Amino acid sequence: MFKKIVWLWFSTKGKNAKDIEEYIASLVKNGANEFFTGYNPHYWYEKFWFEISPNGRFAEHEQITDFETLKKIVEEVHKHKLEIFVNLNAWYYSDETMPLIEKMIWEINKINIDGIICWNIGVLEYLKEVWYAWKINLSTILSLYNKEAIQFFLENYKINKIILSRELTLKEIESLLLAFPEMKFEVFGEGDFCRYNNGLCFAEHKYSSRDICTIVVNDLVIKKRFLPDFKKIILDEKWTYNEKIEEFDDSYEDKFYKVESLLGKIFLFWEKSEDLAELKQNIFDLAPREDLFFDAMKPINSKHNKNILSFLKWVKYLLSNKNLWEDEKKELQNLEKEITKSFHSWFSYFKQKIESLWGQAKLKALELGKFYAKWDNLNLYAYLFFAKFSNLETVKFPTRGRIYAEKIALIEMVLKEWKVGKQFIDRGLSLERAHYDMSYLFWEKLWFRKMIQNIWQ
Q1: 0.90 exceeded by pTM
Q2: Alpha helices in 360-404 (DSSP H)
């Protein structure tokens, strides 16, 4: 099972004060294996306040702000024979802030903090210069995207662990883990839309409208690809304002809506060969989608499930047509079986739930509660994918104080038994990790659909 790594931030004063000894003990009791924190001492925040951070956090309550508290935390963590690291991973350090970073390093060295999470080459060079003896973890902010970059840091610095960027795809993560089997890694269970998020991209990230710096995705559909010269376009005076807006326009036609319109046209009027050819092309374009299954965690009238049922109707219509190649017919038959199976599993699951709960009203209340909590669910399937890598120490999910012990226990049980049963279908078939990967369009990822078919047995 992966390590459970906990970020520590709290005060020993005021209404949110915590007893350090009691708090650390409770975290360890609930399975914490390692800790990390940010340190923003008075000589930093009195000068820069919290608008400029030494650790990537910009609120006072998200970091430790006095040396005595930090020292006490380290002592308590070490009582449990566990490690604690300090983040030094702000996006940049200037000539004015670097001397304060050096002062922090000497302070944390005195209280035997186990290591530093670092992204800055200047800080790494300083640590090498002063013969820093503790552990160094490379931060996600360092944006190590390829084998050559990792090799550079391993050859020049003594590295304990590498934390890979959020925006890496599953395929890229897998290749890096296999390339460096002796190095320990951490990854994120959730990804990021912007390919350059950790790589110092300062553009606006709206994800929904006119995102000028990156690929734009809506419901797993690529709307607009990355424009490498977007800054040049913005600054070029030869382009009119309207031309620039047109170039950055991210409007698109939903393929599900397009197919439904085509089918309606065929039913209302008559079947034209060109309409049928377009219908067939659109259906085969949609076939590789990772989320092409009926999702029991969504309402039956949700956009997703209505699209799936419509897709099944289109497939059945095409299968009734005689103008199909044998390989096309076989692929459509397989799709029909797969989607029908996912729908029947949902129906069977709900029928059993109604019987066990003795009533539809109780079932509705239960399912509504789980539906609204869906986005809090840890991605069980991402864990299963990552579990095969022995050099992966942990998969990180942001919990931000939520109660997640039950979810962690569920994941541990599944990993131990290596079986995903029907009882887990109501945990939510979250596509978080797969959703972000779809941003980068490598299509050999139907492992996700194949994996969840185990539930439909």
Answers
A1: no
A2: 360-372, 380-386
